[in-house]
Each structure stands twice: as C-alpha cells, then as structure tokens.
C-alpha cells in the first residue's frame, strides 16, 4: 500500500499550514509507515493517508510524486 504522509520539517516550531510538505512511502501498514518516517527523519508527522485507485493515479501525475525509501 502507498501512503501519503504530510509533515512539518521540525518538531521544534509550531506547525504552519503553509509549510506542510508531503512524501509518499510504500509500506504494509500505516503503523509501519509511521515508524519508518519517525525513525529516519526529524519530521513532525501531521497525517498519514493510504492512497490507491484513482487517487493514486491523480497523485502520480504530480511532478512532485516520488516514493521515498528507507532501510527497514
């Protein structure tokens, strides 16, 4: 399953909507996706959303779509 994770780059500042970024990760579960991001980045995770079907097709059309890979 592919998950879209929205996040702030740091946990030290208050979140600002204008600074929200996203990444895409392939994982078996939402819990595993969260764990991979928390272990490998300093990001403040805001939301994790599973995407598939037409939503995935739409996201893949974006030039910013790229699967992020972390060592498990």
Automatic annotation (TrEMBL):
Instruction: State its Enzyme Commission number(s).
Output: 2.7.7.6
User: Catalyzes what?
Assistant: RNA(n) + a ribonucleoside 5'-triphosphate = RNA(n+1) + diphosphate
Give the keywords, sorted.
Answer: DNA-directed RNA polymerase, Nucleotidyltransferase, Transcription, Transferase
In this record, what's one Pfam family?
RpoY
Q: Which GO terms describe its cellular component?
A: DNA-directed RNA polymerase complex
Q: Which GO terms describe its biological process?
A: DNA-templated transcription
Q: What class of enzyme is it?
A: transferase
Question: InterPro entries recorded for this chain?
Answer: RpoY
**GO molecular function (one):** DNA binding
What is this protein's function per UniProt?
A non-essential component of RNA polymerase (RNAP).
Its quaternary structure? RNAP is composed of a core of 2 alpha, a beta and a beta' subunit. The core is associated with a delta subunit, and at least one of epsilon or omega. When a sigma factor is associated with the core the holoenzyme is formed, which can initiate transcription.
Q: Which family does it belong to?
A: Belongs to the RNA polymerase subunit epsilon family.
Mind telling me what this protein is named? DNA-directed RNA polymerase subunit epsilon
